[in-house]
Specification:
The complex is a heterodimer. Chain A has 15 helices and 15 strands. By secondary structure, chain A is α/β, with parallel strands linked by helices. Chain A has a 7-stranded mixed beta sheet with strand order 2-8-7-6-5-3-4, with helices on both faces. In chain A, strands 11-12-15-14 form a 4-stranded antiparallel beta sheet, covered by helices on one side. In chain A, helix 12 runs parallel beside helix 15. Chain B has 5 helices and 3 strands; from the N terminus they run H-E-E-E-H-H-H-H. Chain B has a 3-stranded antiparallel beta sheet with strand order 1-2-3, covered by helices on one side. In chain B, strand 2 and strand 3 form a beta hairpin. Chain B is globular. Classes of the chains: A alpha/beta, B alpha+beta. At the A-B interface, helix 13 of A face helix 1 of B.
Chain lengths: ~400, ~140
């Protein structure tokens, strides 16, 4: 499939004259996803798992078939290992509350990397505070990578949980999750993988990674906002207590007691976001239709061009690893002497959308000794032309400020 | 969107990059931290009173050009004013940024701070412009 064809599938990119470089925050949505949601409401809308009538049954089927589709998409052994959440944050909280708080105690350790998003960090602080466990960090080296020595010195026999992002949302570093999981398992820890920034770009195989839990959001993967996925190994999920209590997650409810539904319903309390699930299913179809090979080819071209062009701007600092094979499609940068928010405002004025701020990674910012960065993140609809526009706008920004910079 | 040189004008740029108000006071009566957690802008505002008059103010911290310049220009504008006058000016500034006031006569009392008028067209930056002024409001609440 040609990239020109792909770009035509994204109505927002046709309707707005912008250079959208913030797919790391959320992707634009292809018309196939929008249509799937529209069709659902026009023809199938009913509360799943509730009605005995035909459209409710159809709604249930669409919802449950998408679960199966996702299980196949990430190569989960069982479809009931797929739990729908509202976003990645809810997935991490579910694990922290239903596994972390129940299984950890004083003298245990939780180990996470310094590049975690707040969503895979703040819940572990809560677990550490409530259980008395210690929260330790794996720090990055001067290439913005985790070294083997760092991993092996921080994960110990006392480590019970390891939290690791597959791809850093700030640095774009691709972590060797397979290796971390292997080492953590040797030490008896369970591993929670944040795939939010990796699954849009690369094939995820939970069995190959051997992740115990893996979490991602739909909206970074062409799907609508408000839908996320938690994968967990069946034997772990089965042993865990429910996270949210209420409708549809029960078996028998008495005045004082309740027995819970089996997986996956045990973790899906209340009426679910069926439109989000349908949209996610359509997004996965869309991605599979293009194929990860093609996605990789498109992204590698545009990202390597971006790195080349941005590296030529001497007033820029780039926060990326020099090892190309360990870098995904996020590029954080700063203009020396100009605050990222000012840069982002001026880029916006030139029609270029980048993110600025701490990217929900304050501990990482503090570790790097900076307050914030600008971040350009790329996806299948981005072209070399987008990079040129970014570079032009950055030059303009620098020229506006240069006479005032000390 | 309008031309950004209205926002990033000479006055704002000078104040944001090389502010003479960025220092520490010898004997401050009040010291207040202000920050925008989402963007990381952070200032420490110091204030010295002589009875009811703002004798001196200074700030330290880091953030975008808008937040830094807004702090520095606020200090220039309010130094020498009584607390009552200052409260009135702070109120007018906030109203200007939130587009609740456009009355030219009313805005005149803002002096140089009127330079931030066009920030009201940049919703993403409103909180940057207001940081120092809200921080000063917090000090006034302690008086």
């Amino acid at each position: 499939m040609k990239q020109e064809e792909i770009i035509k599938d994204f109505p927002l990119l046709q309707n707005r004259k912008i250079t959208y470089l913030d797919s790391g925050a959320t992707t634009q949505k292809p018309v196939q996803v929008l249509n799937a949601i529209n069709e659902y409401y026009k023809k199938q809308n009913a509360n799943p798992h509730r009605g005995a009538y035909s459209i409710s049954i159809e709604s249930t089927e669409s919802y449950e078939n998408t679960r199966t589709k996702i299980a196949q998409f990430i190569n989960a052994r069982n479809r009931e290992e797929i739990i729908f959440t509202k976003n990645a944050t809810e997935g991490f909280n579910l694990i922290a509350y239903s596994y972390g708080l129940e299984n950890l105690s004083k003298d245990d350790e939780i180990v996470i990397s310094i590049m975690e998003h707040h969503s895979n960090l703040v819940p572990w602080q809560k677990v550490a505070k409530n259980t008395g466990a210690k929260l330790n960090y794996m720090y990055i080296n001067d290439k913005y990578e985790l070294s083997d020595e760092e991993i092996e010195s921080k994960i110990t026999n006392d480590t019970k949980i390891v939290g690791i992002t597959h791809v850093s949302n700030v640095l774009g570093t691709i972590n060797n999750v397979e290796k971390i999981v292997k080492y953590a398992h040797k030490k008896g820890a369970v591993v929670v993988v944040d795939a939010s920034q990796s699954i849009p770009h690369m094939k995820i195989d939970v069995q190959q990674l051997d992740a115990d839990f893996l979490v991602f959001s739909g909206h970074k993967l062409l799907a609508p906002l408000g839908i996320g996925v938690l994968y967990g190994k069946k034997e772990l999920l089965n042993k865990m207590t429910p996270f949210l209590m209420g409708g549809d997650m029960i078996e028998y409810v008495y005045e004082q007691d309740t027995t819970f539904a089996p997986l996956p319903n045990k973790f899906e309390a209340g009426t679910q976001n069926v439109e989000g699930v349908i949209g996610l299913g359509a997004a996965i179809d869309y991605i599979q239709n293009i194929g990860y090979e093609n996605i990789k080819k498109i992204e590698e071209d545009v990202v390597s061009y971006a790195i080349e062009k941005l590296s030529e701007l001497k007033f820029l600092t780039l926060y990326i690893t020099p090892n190309k094979e360990k870098h995904s499609s996020v590029i954080s940068f700063n203009i020396k002497g100009i605050h990222p928010h000012d840069v982002a405002s001026i880029l916006d004025n030139n029609g270029v959308c980048v993110r600025s701020g701490n990217h929900c990674a304050q501990p990482l910012m503090r570790f790097l000794g900076i307050d914030s960065t600008c971040r350009a993140s790329f996806y299948i609809y981005n072209t070399r032309d987008d990079v040129d526009k970014l570079v032009e706008a950055l030059k303009k920004t620098y020229n506006m400020f240069s006479k005032y910079i000390n | 969107m309008e031309d950004l040189s209205d926002v990033y004008n000479e006055l704002i740029m000078e104040h944001s990059m090389n502010s003479y108000n960025k220092k520490t006071l010898e004997h401050a009566d009040f010291c207040e931290l202000g920050h925008n957690p989402n963007c990381g802008d952070e200032i420490t505002l110091e204030l010295k009173l002589n009875e009811n008059i703002i004798e001196d103010m200074a700030f330290n911290g880091h953030g975008c050009a808008i937040s830094q310049a807004s702090t520095s220009i606020m200090i220039d504008t309010l130094k020498g004013k009584t607390v009552e006058e200052a409260k009135e000016i702070v109120k007018t500034f906030i109203e200007m940024i939130k587009r609740e006031t456009t009355d030219e006569q009313e805005l005149k009392k803002l002096e140089d701070a009127i330079a931030f008028k066009n920030i009201s067209n940049m919703p993403a930056r409103v909180k940057c412009a207001l940081l120092a002024w809200h921080t000063l409001e917090n000090i006034f609440e302690k008086l």
